[in-house]
Write a structure and sequence with these properties.
Layout lengths: L2 H13 L3 H4 L8 E16 L4 E14 L2 E7 L9 H10 L1 H6 L5 H11 L4 H19 L3 H4 L12 E3 L4 H10 L6 E4 L5 H9 L6 E4 L7 H13 L2 E5 L7 H8 L6 E3 L9 H4 L5 E4 L1 H4 L2 H13 L3 E4 L6 H10 L5 E2 L12 E2 L2 E3 L2 E3 L9 E2 L2
Parallel strand pairs: 4-5, 5-6, 6-7, 7-8, 8-9, 9-10, 10-11
Antiparallel strand pairs: 1-2, 2-3, 12-15, 13-14
Helix pairs in contact: 3-6, 5-6, 8-9, 10-11
The chain binds magnesium ion.
Length: 368
């Protein structure tokens, strides 16, 4: 080896974590601490599905070798999940997690998936806590674990829940720092809502109907009207099961149609490929970062657009999704911006762009 190459390989080796850094001490029993956290919304949050003042999410602290990984899952009624059952599901694999080797996080998560039925938000909390622990253990941010460039992180939308025209205008004014808005629709008031938004801003809009339109003709009529209002794409126009009707809708409109409620997990994607232009992947639906990564790759391989979304949740879950965001076309990662009592700071938003923390693991800090 030439002297210059020797220096190069020595520098490369120095950049990698040493084997001893990866060794487990086994000095103390690993701790698994799930906890339900009540997140208070800044505004009453209304979509076609529900109206709420707060959301309970499940947080998990996984401590080993003096390092604590933090995870979160946001269970929602639409998927027949709640925080108490997510907590029980995590406790049911507590013994296994305490004895498992977190350096083998993919193997550990495969075992978790085999042992827990449903409870994808609970699984997401475990996956995120293990990934955060691993990133801190080896001393690298999670985007680096996935081989991604944080400069590729996209702009995130900021969501405007359903409200009266007056409050909608106020919310749009409050959203001044965000260059793209996502408007929740799906009721009889859709035109009034979008007109209220348009009366105060010219920003690009994206629209989420949350399965609210009940037939394909109504969906086509509304989407074609929305296109004239400068809407870039529409999410989940019809109920999740109406895939045939959505295929018909897609052939009668010009803007992309993105699947959310129709696309929960990897196995859903192939059957959606010719009915939708893209998929909205969420860690809470997928069961964590590893599954979300797989879903994004499958969707891409089928020529579909990809989006990362989130539930109402704290900076734990939103930051985990943000670490994968350099992979996707669109981001809707604002769940933490909609709450008033976020326990952590992680991903930041500057002029709409997601700024990923460069600290190890998720890179969370306690909120100031
Ligand atoms: Mg949606």
């Amino acid at each position: 080896m030439r002297r210059r190459d020797l220096f190069k390989s020595a520098a490369a080796a120095a950049a990698l974590p040493s084997t001893s850094a990866l060794r487990l001490s086994g000095a103390s029993e690993p701790a698994i601490e799930p906890k339900i956290v009540r997140l208070k919304l800044r505004h009453t949050w209304t979509t076609v599905m529900s109206s709420s003042e707060f959301r309970d999410t499940l947080h998990l602290r996984y401590t080993r070798d003096g390092i604590t990984g933090t995870g979160e899952g946001a269970p929602i009624v639409r998927y027949h999940e709640d925080a108490a059952s997510a907590q029980k599901a995590i406790e049911s694999v507590g013994g296994f997690l305490r004895s498992a080797d977190p350096r083998q996080f993919a193997k550990v998560m495969a075992e978790v998936f085999r042992n827990i039925d449903g409870q994808y938000a609970g699984k997401a909390a475990i996956d995120i806590a293990l990934m955060d622990w691993f990133g801190q253990k080896v001393g690298i941010p999670l985007y680096t674990c996935f081989g991604l460039d944080p400069a590729d992180a996209p702009v995130t939308t900021f969501s405007i829940g359903i409200d009266t025209p007056e409050i909608t205008r106020q919310k749009v004014r409050e959203a001044a720092p965000y260059p793209i808005l996502k408007i929740k629709v799906g009721l009889d008031s859709d035109e009034a809502t979008v007109e209220a938004v348009r009366s105060v801003t010219k920003k690009p809009l994206r629209v989420d109907a949350n399965e609210g339109w009940k037939d394909k003709e109504e969906a086509v009529r509304k989407i074609n009207w929305l296109e004239k209002q400068g809407v870039e794409f529409v999410e989940q126009p019809l109920p999740a099961a109406m895939i045939e009707e959505t295929r018909w809708v897609r052939s009668h409109v010009h803007i992309p149609v993105i699947a959310d409620e129709a696309c929960l997990r990897a196995s859903d994607i192939p059957k959606l490929a010719d009915a939708f232009d893209g998929v909205n992947v969420k860690l809470d639906k997928a069961g964590g970062m590893l599954e979300a990564y797989r879903m994004i790759q499958i969707a891409k391989s089928l020529g579909m657009k990809t989006m990362l979304g989130c539930m109402i949740s704290s900076s734990v879950s939103v930051t985990a999704a943000a670490h994968l965001s350099p992979l996707v076309n669109y981001a809707d990662l604002d769940g933490n911006l909609l709450i008033a009592n976020d326990p952590y700071t992680g991903v930041l938003v500057r002029e709409g762009k997601l700024i990923l923390p460069d600290r190890p693991g998720l890179g969370l800090k306690p909120a100031a």
